[in-house]
Amino acid sequence: MREGTAPLIHREDYCAPVYWIRTVDLCFDLEPAKTLVTSKMQIERNSAVAHGPLRLHGEELTLLRVLINGESVSFRQEGDELVIDNAPDADFALEIRNTCAPEKNTALSGLYTSGGGFFTQCEAEGFRRITYFLDRPDVMAVYSVLLRADKARYPVLLSNGNLLEQGALDNGRHFAKWHDPFPKPSYLFALVAGDLVAREQRITTRSGKDHLLQVYVRRGDLEKTEHAMNSLIASIAWDEARFKLPLDLERFMIVGVSDFNMGAMENKGLNIFNTSALLVSPATATDADFNRIEAIVAHEYFHNWTGNRVTCRDWFQLSLKEGLTVFRDQEFSMDMAAAPSARAVKRIEDVRNLRAMQFPEDSGAMAHAVRPDSYVEINNFYTPTIYEKGAEVVRMYQTLVGREGFEKGMTLYFERHDGQAVTCDDFAAAINDANPGSELSTRLDAFKRWYSQAGTPRVQARGRFDASARTWTLDLAQANPPTPGQDDKLSQVIPVRMGLLSHAGAALPLQLQGEDAAAGTERVLVLDKAEQSFTFVGLDEAPVASLLRQFSAPVVLDDGLTDAELLVLLKFDTDAFNRWEASQRLALNRLLPVVRSGEELTLDTAYIDGMRAVLRSDQLDSAFKALALTLPSEGYIAEQLDVIDPQRIHAAVGTMQLQLARALRDDWQAAFEANQVAGGYSADPVSSGKRALANLALQMLVLDAVQTGNDIWPGRAYQRFKDAGNMTERMGALTALVFARAGLAQPALERFHALFKHEPLVIDKWFALQGRAPELDGQVFARVKQLMQHPDFSLKNPNRARSLIFSLCLFNPAAFHRTDAAGYVFWADRVLELDAINPQVAGRLARVMDRWTKLAEPYRSAAHEALARVAAKPDLSSDVREVIDRALN
Ligand code: PHE
Ligand code: ZN
């Protein structure tokens, strides 16, 4: 934990290290209270840069001795650095001995204990909390690791690479020796020691090599690892097939731990996972959990090439590995979904997530570029912008050079940079150089503004039809609003995938003026100027434009379409993403005016008929229907407004939901009945789509019934909750009762707790559901405060803290933003409390106030007061300090 005013670090200040560390021999004597670490490093001066002292990072360590070539040497400690002024010119051996205190490490960065075992987390700068080191990603070394620990308490001893030797020692202790042949940055180091069991699988990959795959968990959790193992096997096969990237290790291990700051970590050959991102069974996890775990297992596995074999030169390049790896896991999930409609569902979910998380970030105090120019605390930059927007940038390369061109670019990237620590520019160059003459090659520099400019570009599109010339001209304009520190922006390169429809719904051939013939019914226009026009010829009527198909660029589109035109798209567009988008736009067109005016909402028949047609369609699949009939989230609605009144938004959405429930009651009932899934559980897209629609239908039916005082549907929901054969249905029924505030909600919640009291991940769901229940008269807020006292609640476990507190503060705007400011007081208290335990988690929570300046009064002033209160605390972590300072400036 670094305290006080930490300095701003600038990308432009990057300097290569003065020394390289080529090999490291680590020895650990593992004890929870005090672990002894001996590190023997082979060090070399970097001849490319000027001489200077050797400066090693170290935090919260007790230094015991420093030897150079076996002799003691003079050194000094400067802040968190160990400085050796007179290191030899020639290569030398440096030996350091220190201790650290895993048991006291509640920050969960470095070496810590959890559930009676030892675990490490070294990204981004955790290795320096284990021993003194050049803890930066461009210093890559070969690691040998000797672990010694009590054999009874820690029968399993793991580290990166291959197991060389293990055996017994005196006093009930034992040892294991590991060697990782691949040079790696310190952030990819890992060790695990504990009483764990493994699911094992031997596989032979395409090249004929044999590999051992292992998933280590605590004894009772073994049966919840089958899906993760299957996902790993599928990921390995996919990366070989799609990108010709093989598994390079004899042994690939995954370990689950229940105290973890993030989802998972790609340590070389030894991935460490939050149990919430690893363990599933039909009885304890939902369809969404199954999909998420498949994606995370894939993500970490894919890092083995994009991140580990080729890593980042410095942390400003974080998106080089994260954006690319998210793109890869998204592509993998789409390929696993197989059917075109299931691919589209995945794309819709990804875009919904981008808009819910990244767009707000781009319009708030912490807005930053995909490749930021400065930071105070790197932990604050594991963000939706680096990850999800970064993935969209990679997707745009693929759109511009084509799928094959992109694969060629990846091949060139690995040919050039395998074993190196590189930059986003190196990636851009590889994709570009592999694709001469592509749409990218003529505008590479402009394209790279996606890395340097923060903010979500706005694209305006308007059509002009000329009946006599039979032409239709599309006028496109782009603008990127100012973000902190970036007032003026240059035009970006925006691929606009598009098609044109007749009003009767036919896909029209696309021929641009000057072309000899039409080129199909879909194409990609490239917008790279502030304003640009494209004229299509041979049209007999003004077409309906379907723009930004598949969400071909991370922008906000204003296409000026009327409701009638949106209804054409909803019915006929060949692009499923834009069909869904039309459903959301139709909903927004009804919500936004009443939120702005404060008037009562009354749904019109055009909208209701449109939604009814979706629900009744025999062509659309259930997963799509559920997405189209789900109203935009309150957060996304807030995003559309200049002044945000969370209570008004909540009221409008509540009313609309109720009217939709009522108007389509018979159809909801029919949908509920038609979407029952019989037989054994499978999380395949068809079954999970049916469950999603049945759950939504049930939610609507219970909502309507509670309002009209009818007991039938609440009773049925309770029955379904009791009898459910899987968590998706059980949770769906419970959610329906809780969200409708049915009288049966409370007994159901109690029963749920009793049923799952020994399943921490399910208890997280129990807290989370109560934290995000729709607010009414402050009851939800009061309940959350009460739940903080529940014996199962703890701030120390990040999953548990997030389940209750983040659910309220991040995902329940109406419960959080109160006219009496109690929500903000609660927030400030929790930020301060958490900061003393775990600055990374506290930093996340601090971000809730990112967009406080857009709040209506009285929220705005009260939010400011709460921020000022946190800011006044003198010893904040650099994590929280940076977030709060940026919010206040
Ligand atoms: N690198 C991890 C991932 O994206 C995320 C992570 C970052 C985990 C920092 C822990 C700490 O896969
Ligand atoms: Zn990652």
UniProtKB/TrEMBL annotation:
Keyword Protease among record annotations: yes
Co-factor requirement: Zn(2+)
Residue span, Peptidase M1 alanyl aminopeptidase Ig-like fold domain: 455-558
Sections of the chain in a coiled coil: none
Occurrences of domain Peptidase M1 membrane alanine aminopeptidase (ranges): 228-435
GO terms, molecular function: alanyl aminopeptidase activity; metallopeptidase activity; zinc ion binding
Keyword Protease: yes
All residue ranges annotated as the Peptidase M1 alanyl aminopeptidase C-terminal domain in the record: 563-889
Domain Aminopeptidase N-like N-terminal: 25-188
EC number: 3.4.11.2
Gene3D superfamilies hit by this protein: 2.60.40.1840, 3.30.2010.30, Neutral Protease Domain 2, Peptidase M1, alanyl aminopeptidase, C-terminal domain, tricorn interacting facor f3 domain
Annotated family: Belongs to the peptidase M1 family.
Biological role: Aminopeptidase N is involved in the degradation of intracellular peptides generated by protein breakdown during normal growth as well as in response to nutrient starvation.
PANTHER family in UniProt: PUROMYCIN-SENSITIVE AMINOPEPTIDASE
Name of this chain's protein: Aminopeptidase N
Protein's organism: Roseateles toxinivorans
